[in-house]
Amino acid sequence: MYNLINDLYQKQRNLVSIDYDESLEYISKILPLKIHKIPSGTKCWTWEVPLAWEVKEAFIENNGGKIIDVKDHPLHLASYSTPIDKIISKEELMKHLSSNKERPNAIPFDYKYYQNDWGFCVQFNKLKDFTEKNYHVVINSEFKEGELKIGELFVKGELKETIVLVAHLCHPAMANDDLSGVSVLVDIGKNLLEKNNLKYSYRILFLPETIGSIAYLSQNEELISDMKFGLFLEMLGNDNFHSLQFSRQKNTEIDKIAENVIKHNQKEFKTGDFREIISNDEMVFNGPGVNIPMISISRWPYPEYHTSDDNISIIKKENLEESKKLVLKILEALENNYTPIRKFKGPPHLSKYGLWVDWRDDLELNKMLEKIFLEFEGDNSIVEIAEKLNLDFFVLLDYVNKFLQAKLVEKK
Amino acid sequence: MYNLINDLYQKQRNLVSIDYDESLEYISKILPLKIHKIPSGTKCWTWEVPLAWEVKEAFIENNGGKIIDVKDHPLHLASYSTPIDKIISKEELMKHLSSNKERPNAIPFDYKYYQNDWGFCVQFNKLKDFTEKNYHVVINSEFKEGELKIGELFVKGELKETIVLVAHLCHPAMANDDLSGVSVLVDIGKNLLEKNNLKYSYRILFLPETIGSIAYLSQNEELISDMKFGLFLEMLGNDNFHSLQFSRQKNTEIDKIAENVIKHNQKEFKTGDFREIISNDEMVFNGPGVNIPMISISRWPYPEYHTSDDNISIIKKENLEESKKLVLKILEALENNYTPIRKFKGPPHLSKYGLWVDWRDDLELNKMLEKIFLEFEGDNSIVEIAEKLNLDFFVLLDYVNKFLQAKLVEKK
Amino acid sequence: MYNLINDLYQKQRNLVSIDYDESLEYISKILPLKIHKIPSGTKCWTWEVPLAWEVKEAFIENNGGKIIDVKDHPLHLASYSTPIDKIISKEELMKHLSSNKERPNAIPFDYKYYQNDWGFCVQFNKLKDFTEKNYHVVINSEFKEGELKIGELFVKGELKETIVLVAHLCHPAMANDDLSGVSVLVDIGKNLLEKNNLKYSYRILFLPETIGSIAYLSQNEELISDMKFGLFLEMLGNDNFHSLQFSRQKNTEIDKIAENVIKHNQKEFKTGDFREIISNDEMVFNGPGVNIPMISISRWPYPEYHTSDDNISIIKKENLEESKKLVLKILEALENNYTPIRKFKGPPHLSKYGLWVDWRDDLELNKMLEKIFLEFEGDNSIVEIAEKLNLDFFVLLDYVNKFLQAKLVEKK
């Protein structure tokens, strides 16, 4: 995972661009991706696919020479800036400069998608060097017909019902946002490919944010009805505990499973409602007319967000590893969750079936024995029982599986 | 509005009485009222229409002459007092005297409806003048066949569904309770008559409290099913902020609209549950077997309530004007409320349709854009979305109307 | 009631045993019980009826002679202990001794049902006398085919719907747990037999805990569908206020009635959720696949619980009497509860029908008059209206019955 980030983080990925295509090509060598190509101008619901954008050169110069040059750092130029070659006043220039007072030595990330405008991004501390009255601004950028590309890995399971796993790949020259999510998702893809007894099918997508999801879904509407749940991954390499953002529905199976797994496996974490922690493609997948419950897992917030400080130095291998394990555990719980239905009447004679758990072996479970066997009425799945009784999903699963083996319950 | 109160407040209006009829006649000259006449003794559900009550004279005298005389103030005699001409002891007399210690110089309002009893109302400070042992009590009152009268203005709209607006007119010799509500309702009637694009039909009623509503509805049961909502008006001229009393159902469209309008248009106000602020005809309209959600708007409480101090001096023109505007705004919102249904898929491309609202133009709206377009699933009307997101009804209405014009939503 | 306890409390009742049978025989002389006999080994859902257990002798001796002998107190031997005749080390013996540090001079109650093990119960203060290295342990107990017995009194009412009243009878040599519940239930049985206008039918059961209920229900499954509610009685002679344990459903008619009656008739009481106060046969009746809402009434807790101190000395006649009255009052409310449906329209003219209640006669009721007549829409029974308005069930019943007599409401 770390290598992928290290190899790709300096590329100037943009919605439709050469560096984006090269990054997707790189992933294709690890996973057998199907690449969807959707031409510029294609109508996608209320949107359309933008033109490709390429930059040959972009700089600001004054009498002393170039003071800002995109060759020094891709983030110096706001994505999708329109071309210009003009001498303008300082006052006019300042309207087009972004900087970040909170991190004065970092170049912020900015973009002009759909705005027909241009901009440069500058370290806040460099603003004081703009002492002259006029500046020569050159942006040699080109907008042309291109193809928006989406990388898809489909892993077939027993059911047609699909879990969609998404990471976006369109953020230029940064590491944690968005390559850390991409790298973890690549490993999860490898892991799923190795399994041969999956219950659900899985659709893993690498795409440009928002327009990528809209383009994919609008061109593949027939897939939506089989999409049961979604999971968005991003910002997983930095040093912070995990944040779980619930789906718009909030109380679905994947919400409950993710919360149970994170609660029983992580010392610290936080949870938040839809769009209250981070904003990404869940607004498309879980949005109007689609509405697939999609949770997000990240390590938001982190101070280097959307600046040139978001580089390989803030990525820790063990964080990526821990996040991967967490997501795999959530998927494992999702695969194994079921609704037990009682086949016995009366309180079952636990000791006779080896179902008695002594408090000396597991105090928490011991206290719950009676409450557990009252929950086999077909109203609640394992995760819902676990939630009600505040038990670890996997501890409860193991115990209920014993009822299943004793034929005291069956799966609904 | 002020003139109506000034012209009528000294009349001795009672359930069925000459002064009541004259007051209704006065209103008839302003609005084209239909007058319903229901004879004494008519069965009205579990009630019946009372006899007319007229007083020729009523006084209490001792050796020094008359000490209380209804000629001095109509409130001196409790409404519907039975006739008497008798010398009685002070002890006996005291059982029939009402006074108000809190307002010692005011004559309180009292009534003996359905009680077959008599009473006088006296300033508390005057009680000390009752120093003699015996008193001559004379009430020359007459109970006779009459007609309970109800004034009705019907304004036809596009729909058969009717909004009922009610004020009672039976309180003798007071100004704020009940003529201020009557005067505001007269002006609202004029306003509605001028409109030619009303969605709802309106039924405006002036009647004696409780028995008037029971008589009207019991004799016109076929109208009930078209009555969608009701609004009761009273005590609107005094100096206090508005009180909104919710309907019995509490969460209906008119409750939500009234609360939204009052919240976004009045600095101070209070709200309360059904019958927790004031008690009037909403117990009939919103009561057993009828149950039309009826809210009440008043400026309750005020210290002069039900005394001779409730006269023209406590009525302020600007209060009446403000109350009228508030009620008209509630009706306007009711007329314009609708349920938007989404016709787009995915998050709409707001800027493309001119639906983007910059935070510099409207910060409150800007923060809610995303939450607004998630609410077009047909579950919530404009007022319900406004309530959820804590927005002004009319601000939200204007914004959602732009989606309507762009054909991104349609009306349910 | 007191006599029954006094006569029976020293018997060594066990699940299937001679003393149990004799105790049931004793009750049979008071109530016309039907005795169900279910042979050892009978399959009862996931359980089976145990063998009868009889003890001829049981003691522990050392060189100085017998130091513990079941002849001194039946509780010295754990119920259903297996036979033994062996010299064992002190260390080994100690694993088989129960004592209670909290009540050092009392013999605790212990049992080895379904465990194939043996044990003695000793006063904590006596443990210090076990100074030798080896002990001769003799238990001359016998397990043999027998019959589990259940005493049933069925009192037929107008309806097939049955109220099940249960007390267990299998606790050896104690008074409050479980004979106090048995004694109160016997008196309730006598009381019900005297009535000739019962709405519900009643099924009163005396049985061994858990296995008795399982045996009864599994062998009489066809009765379950008519069982509407259940009530379990136990620990009613000690000095403590009453505890009401709700059914698993918690919000059923019997839960609400019991709570109303206890609240308006007892100065002190507590309530608790299912299985949070005491654990008895409600887990069978209100358990998986049966699920008859069963409340429990007791005076839990008390310090002598499950020890030899739970004897006749802690039983007070007035407590038994008070508990009996409380239960009878609950049953009376249950018999009389109904759902009133309005036949009037509009607010009823209360005074005309003698339904006006002056605040000087009953302030609490006076304040509620209007709220009461709004509740006759058929959604709420008397107890539910009483709960909403915080009124005594019987006060409200009397008042609503006046509406019934005036034909203003009818029963649903």
TrEMBL record, chains A, B, C:
It comes from the Archaea. It comes from Nitrosopumilus maritimus (strain SCM1). Keywords: Aminopeptidase, Hydrolase, Protease. The keyword NADP does not apply. Residues 53-142 form the DUF2172 domain. SUPFAM superfamilies: Zn-dependent exopeptidases (SSF53187). This is Protein containing aminopeptidase domain. Residues 2-337 form the DUF4910 domain. One of its GO terms (molecular function) is aminopeptidase activity. Signal peptide: none annotated. Gene3D superfamilies: 3.50.30.90, Winged helix-like DNA-binding domain superfamily/Winged helix DNA-binding domain, Zn peptidases. It holds the Pfam family DUF2172.
